[in-house]
Design brief:
By secondary structure, the chain is an alpha+beta fold. The protein has one domain (4-69). The protein has helices spanning 4-18, 27-30, 36-49, and strands spanning 24-26, 58-60, 66-69. Strands 1-3-2 form a three-stranded antiparallel β-sheet. A hairpin with a 5-residue loop joins strand 2 (58-60) and strand 3 (66-69).
Length: 82
């Protein structure tokens, strides 16, 4: 049986990977009121886990009400050996 927490986390991660560049979303429109805090924490975890990839361009608005994905294609590869 799948752990519901892991299933939700996988869904959030999948959404973040597939999120179109330049698109902005209201967080309250992405999740139910009872899962908003959990959603934000999972996104923060994703951002930390993918820092070497510029968090795939994911960023919050200053008030944590919106999330968007920026274009990171022109940034240097942090994993490339010098």
């Amino acid at each position: 049986m799948d752990n519901p927490d892991n299933t939700y986390k996988e869904k959030v991660y999948d959404f973040l990977y597939r999120m179109p560049v330049g698109k902005e979303y209201l967080i309250d429109n992405l999740c139910k009121a009872g899962t908003r805090e959990k959603f934000v924490e999972i996104v923060k975890e994703f951002m930390i886990a993918t820092l070497s990839r510029y968090s795939y361009g994911i960023e919050f608005s200053g008030d944590y009400k919106k999330i968007r994905k920026s274009d990171i294609t022109g940034l240097p590869d942090l994993l490339k050996k010098k």
